[in-house]
Structures are given as C-alpha cells and as structure tokens.
Amino acid sequence: MIDDELKVTTRQRDGIWIIDLEGDVTTFAEEAITGAYEGVTKEGAKYIIINSRQSDYINSAGIAILIGVVTEVNRQAQKLAISGLSPHFQKIFRMVGLAQYADIFATEEEAIAAMQRHQQAAVESAQ
C-alpha cells in the first residue's frame, strides 16, 4: 500500500485558510491532514475550510481523522467549514454528527461566503 494516495495543500483567501484534499481520505491521510491543519493554525488561522471537492472516497478512518481535526478546531476556538462533499458524504457527515461542529457546504464559494459573514460578525461584536 502506498501512503501518498492523498495530496493536501493549503492556501489563504481573504483571511480564510483553505485545506485542499485531492484523492482518497483513508487512514494513510492522517499525517497529511493533521499536518496541514497544524500548519495553518501556527499561521494564526481562525477560519478554516476543508475543501474535499477532489476527494471521491472517504472511509471510516478518514472520517475519524476529520473528527480529530474538528475536536482541535473547537479547542482552538476556530471556525471550520467543509466544502465539496458529494451528497452521499454530506449525508454521512450529518449522520455521524460532524455537521454540529463544522458547517457543510456544496461549494467552496458558499463556504467562503459563510466564513466572511462569521468574520464580519466577529468584527462587529468586538466593537
């Protein structure tokens, strides 16, 4: 088995960090996903989107990895959204309770718009 089935990259857009997943999210993805999350957190990320638009397969180990990220996001008082999931995986994420802790959007654009609303609300409440 090869452990490079998943390519993970990070980028920033309008103060929002995006973690792009390309490939299968399985047990072999843990180091790449958690490493990307830790990297953006060290950069000061408060708003994070996990973009899974190019991931066709997520198994139970992959879901467990994402639950671990959600747990850390809550500890760090960050805001997380997940975009690009197929309708099938959107349903699964809701069934396992991930939607309680991370907003789920069909597209990256929808997730960015929601994060921008959260950013604006945070600015307004700080004034």
Automatic annotation (TrEMBL):
Belongs to the anti-sigma-factor antagonist family. Residues 6-115 form the STAS domain. PROSITE patterns: STAS. InterPro entries: Anti-sigma_ant, STAS_dom, STAS_dom_sf. Coiled coil: none annotated. Gene3D superfamilies: STAS domain (3.30.750.24). It comes from the Bacteria. Pfam families: STAS (PF01740). This is Anti-sigma factor antagonist.
